[in-house]
Specification:
The complex is a heterodimer of chains A (267) and B (439). Chain A is an alpha+beta fold and 267 residues long. Chain A has 10 helices and 8 strands. The relative contact order of chain A is 0.12. Chain A has 2 domains: 55 residues, 3-methyladenine DNA Glycosylase II, Chain A, domain 3 (Orthogonal Bundle), CATH 1.10.15.40; 163 residues, Alpha-Beta Plaits. Chain A is elongated, with a radius of gyration of 28 Å. With 439 residues, chain B is an alpha/beta fold. Among the domains of chain B are: 164 residues, Rossmann fold (3-Layer(aba) Sandwich); 70 residues, no CATH class. Helices cover 29% and strands 20% of the residues of chain B. In chain B, a hairpin with a 6-residue loop joins β16 and β17. The chains are: A alpha+beta (267), B alpha/beta (439). At the A-B interface, α5 of A face α13 of B. Chain B: It is a peripheral membrane protein. Chain B: The complex is composed of six subunits: RnfA, RnfB, RnfC, RnfD, RnfE and RnfG. Chain B: Keywords: 4Fe-4S, Cell membrane, Electron transport, Iron, Iron-sulfur, Membrane, Metal-binding, Repeat, Translocase, Transport. Chain B: It is found in: Cell membrane.
Chain lengths: 267, 439
Amino acid sequence: MVLDLVIPTAIIGGIGLLSGLGLSIASKKFEVKVDERVGMVREVLPGANCGACGQTGCDAFAEAVVEGKCKSNACPVGGQEVADKIGEILGIKAEASVAKVARVMCSGTYESCKQKYEYKGIEDCAAASTLFGGPSACTYGCVGLGNCVRACPFNAIVLIDGLARVIESRCKACEMCVASCPKKIIRMIPKSNEYTVACSSLDKGAVVRKNCNVGCIGCGKCSKVCQYSAIEVQGTLAKINAEACVNCGECMKVCPTKAIKKYKCEL
Amino acid sequence: MLVKNFFKGGAKVPHFKNTAECETVKMEVPEKVRIPMLQHIGAPCEPCVKKGDTVRVGQIIGNSDKYISSPIHSSVSGTVTDVAPMLYAGGIYVTTVEIKTDGNQELYEGIKPPSFSNSNEFVSAIRESGLVGLGGAGFPAHVKLSPPSGKKIDTLIINAAECEPYITSDYREIIENSWNVISGINIIMEVLEIDNVLIGIEDNKPEAIKEMTRVAETDDKINVVKLKSRYPQGAEKMLIYATTGRKVPPGKLPADVGVIVMNVNSVSFISEYTKTGMPLIKKRITVDGPSVKRPANVEALIGTPISEVFNFCGGFGIVPKKILMGGPMMGIAQFTLDTPVLKHTNALLAFDETKAVLPKEQACIRCGRCVKACPMNLLPLQLNNNTIKENIEELNKYHVMDCIECGSCAYVCPAKINLVQSIRLGKAQVKQAAAKGGK
């Protein structure tokens, strides 16, 4: 009677003991060493898995940083704050990162820019661009079908009147929109820069005037008025040099077509 | 006459061959022509005239040293008024030569019938003629006619299927110039040493079949093949299968299965060219659609603005909403009537509002009709889904690049999903990813 209880208990217990032993040996023998700093770095990352750093996600980035394959300031979403924290964990001095923001270099809405045809195809900027460069009269400007809106992981881009606008408080500078735009008119600009030439047209001034009310016609007034020589007219398009600009706003005042804008979009 | 294989898939489209009995009418010389430097698949030409130059009919105004390219000739005599970029259908700017005509149509002195004794000389003469595939795609003919060494060509297929609705320009060529077609075929047969010629014509054109059979009767090397009417019968790969039973493997060319396919207009042009030496400067266009007052087959000079072509046909009866260059299945919608007639333009169609508006897209009901319709045996719904997700790996897995963009899937879709448009985008995504990876 007693044996009936003891034998199975002993067998089961024995099997348990053996497997436990096997497992503990295996865990020692096949141990994968994980740098504990990877976990710590992962903790401080934003966790959006956006891929802006060039890695497949935050986990991969944490590993890459610890292994030294990535710079500590490579996460544009986290910015300086995260870079500092990573530097602390790894015991290195964090490299300085400039806070950037995405800006749409076009201000052609349905009202300001003429439409050359009515587009009825699939809702995709790249698809529309293959037909005469898109429905808008200007072939350089925003198509307005929202590829960037769909690409943004932070809901920071909205479409209003056929023009994509970046809500700067939400923009984390992951650059996903830059890659998604078939017209390549979304650029990363330092957040401290308030003024932008919101036009990308390389057409001649007269053509720009014909197509759009708010396009840059390359008149050069802005570059003349700028005391810091921060504006250069390249071809028929003015360009603000972000480093030299001091945000005085003189250029915006003289621009005849109001193509230079103090960028602001909040909801 | 033989009835051969029948390719899988495709769509039964209405024929609307309203202009079949309209004899070709020659259009007068327009006041101004605009000739773009890219009217073919391949490298664009560099203009070799400048503003103020006088040009004559048949003079080369643009050429390229690239192999896959085709020279561009002036279709009129007059003065070059502008050489400037012009927006082209693909959304790119192409240098365009604008010529103000003097109305005299003086011939360029260099025009003389080409002389050739071997296939190499023949091919370079064809290049000089500026001939591109006149079926619609515009692939340079000299490239087609010079198969890679080591590949034996045994069959020449003449494409007269004309499966797109409305278009009758190939049909008119057969009815009006059947002897030219035969003599063009004979020239190619002789030069390239081909012993077997098959002329593929859809069975909705019995007159054309009768005419071609009549003129080809004496030659037992030339056979007319009656094809079932089904879109896209005129697509190269479908036509090769339907006439010879050979299948062109994915990513391969017709030459790989020993075949050359030429459009019936192209062979007819070759015959004309060897007689007169006049390069490709004019094109027969079917002008049709519910909005056009007098549908017709018009012979227009290349570079004529399409507005003049429509005016020539009596203008618009009903206000058009959509104007297509090419057939309704594969044609490209135009936004301006300033667009010039190109080498490979075969139709101009104008539709009123009722015909132009696309039905609303609905959710896929997974009926599989697009799969059945795809002549290339692809899965359009999978390609569509993966295009939306931008999943390049899956797009490649489902062979997106094999799509011939015939549009059968979108045509048969009961949910009216823009399948072919989406797949075209998918192809662009794959190409873009490949370009990025190659960098």
